[in-house]
Design goal:
The protein has about 450 residues and is of the alpha+beta class. It is built from 17 helices and 20 strands. The model is unreliable at about 1-10 and about 20-30 (pLDDT under 50). Bound molecules: flavin-adenine dinucleotide.
């Protein structure tokens, strides 16, 4: 799979670029492509909206493309993303299976990444003046380590191509117009409705479903939105007393479900965080939402879930060190503070000699190292990244074009779709990819 992810073909993107070059010189070809020029609305001035608008204008400069943004500024999430540095994509170097990256939308992304991959995104940003760096953890950032570089690239390209941006324009609905095309209805004063040939909805993740009512009314299936990528609140004083402690290779899971994840685990003053927890919150986003964010949690501090393997490992360690005190051991490289806590949790004394530990105590220790039990009591916050799972169901969208299956001329891109990823730049990649595919389809007639 690693190879196949790397080998995502650039054929389609290259063809599209060729098309753009042909268009520069061949007016008649452009006219075949677009017998009359279109007026296109893009609802939402975020990453997906801007990328889509830019590619639309590049394809057919004569089309009128207007971004309607409800807020007073565009690209607000790009600004705060990645702690202000904007992790805009990933090298995918260690991605074996896209379903581990995109808990919702993996099949769609597998198909669409062949049209516009992480490498295409990398090349596009570098070609448009944003030098990039790939970190050791595969995350890609602007070399200047500032999201402003991405914002000024997108706004500059949009401005240069003549994309119009209207701020303070909250769209309340999109409807079919009786004389053809689509009608965009605005809430707020001064502007009520406007007719367009095509409309793209790129409004991002909505924490509540009310914003989706008009899409449901048009016949789209909507997946209930709920948060993803958050930390767990665990009311356990002895655990949270170790805040700041990191276990590099833990495994966490939700008992009775298939949801589990591996990675670094961070103990915080409110519970647990770190990549392993964020991933689990993403995999189990809908399950935890439905459970009211209360659930049992199992932690393997050893990173190993086979109790017999851990028991054997401990037994060897004990018999190799019969005269040592239990508290002096460091099984699985665990920090001493954590190990002493786990000994206390098993009712064992740190001064006890290793050679004197009985079978039952050994079992208790193996159990706490592989399947330590906690209770998730709520959802913590995670300020670096946060996405919404849910939105427009993929069954309502044509996967080749991003066009609605229920309303001709209406397209979707970005987080408004039921596509979301774990941390690492994959959410922006989904925005660039879906926007590119939608733009290509919208530009063609
Ligand atoms: C704090 C934070 C950090 C993040 N960091 C990263 C990261 O480093 N890497 C990564 O890959 N992902 C990151 N993400 C996720 C990423 O930001 C989103 O997945 C991405 O922004 C989605 O792009 P989008 O264009 O679909 O939606 P958005 O960026 O949310 O843009 C949607 C736009 O539509 C506007 N809008 C909404 N409703 C309407 C309406 N009715 N009318 C008009 N306009 C409307 C909104 O105001 C907004 O400007 C982060 C998210 C957060 C919150």
């Amino acid at each position: 799979m690693k190879k196949s992810v790397k080998a995502f073909s650039h054929c389609s993107y290259t063809k599209f670029l060729l098309l753009l070059n042909v268009q520069k010189y061949d007016i008649s070809f452009k006219q075949i492509l677009s017998p009359y020029y279109m007026k296109i609305a893009i609802v939402g001035g975020g990453a997906a909206g801007f990328f889509l608008a830019i590619h639309l204008k590049q394809a057919v400069p004569e089309n009128r493309v207007i971004i309607f943004e409800r807020a007073g500024r565009v690209l607000a999430k790009v600004r705060v993303s990645g702690g202000g540095r904007c992790n805009l994509t990933n090298s995918f170097a260690h991605v074996d299976d896209l379903s581990h990256i995109y808990p919702r939308g993996a099949r769609l992304m597998k198909r669409l990444l062949r049209e516009f991959s992480h490498e295409d995104a990398y090349r596009w940003f570098e070609a448009h003046g944003v030098k990039l760096v790939t970190q050791d953890d595969d995350c890609v950032f602007p070399a200047v380590q500032d999201s402003a570089a991405v914002i000024s690239c997108l706004t500059h390209q949009a401005g240069r191509l003549g994309v119009e941006v209207r701020l303070g324009h909250p769209v309340k609905a999109v409807k079919r117009h009786e004389e053809g095309g689509l009608e965009v209805l605005f809430s707020g004063e001064g502007h009520s409705a406007e007719r367009f040939d095509r409309v793209a909805v790129t409004t991002g993740g909505a924490p509540r479903s009310e914003g989706f009512d008009y899409l449901a009314a048009l016949g789209h299936k909507m997946e209930t939105p709920c948060p993803s990528l958050y930390t767990f609140s665990i009311l356990h004083k002895d655990l949270t007393a170790m805040m700041g402690l990191v276990v590099e290779a833990a495994q966490v899971s939700i008992p009775g479900t298939k949801f589990r994840s591996r990675g670094a685990l961070l103990i915080t003053h409110w519970g647990l965080s770190g990549p392993a927890i964020l991933k689990l919150s993403s995999y189990a986003a809908r399950h935890l939402h439905d459970a009211g964010y209360r659930s049992p949690l199992q932690v393997s501090w050893a990173g190993e879930v086979n109790m017999e393997t851990v028991r054997g490992y401990l037994q060897k360690m004990l018999s190799d060190n019969p005269r040592k005190q239990l508290g002096t051991l460091h099984p699985y490289g665990l920090q001493q503070r954590l190990w002493l806590y786990l000994l206390r949790r098993c009712g064992l004394c740190e001064e006890q000699l290793c050679g004197e530990l009985g079978g039952k105590s050994l079992n208790r220790l193996a159990n706490v190292l592989t399947a330590d039990a906690y209770a998730i009591e709520g959802k913590g916050t995670y300020r670096d990244e946060f996405v919404t799972c849910g939105g427009v169901a993929l069954s309502s969208v044509n996967a080749l074009t991003m066009e609605s299956r229920h309303c001709a001329g209406l397209y979707f891109a970005g987080e408004v779709l039921d596509v979301d990823a774990v941390t690492g730049g994959f959410n922006f990649q989904a925005a660039w990819t879906t926007a590119f595919v939608a733009a290509r389809a919208m530009a063609a007639r």
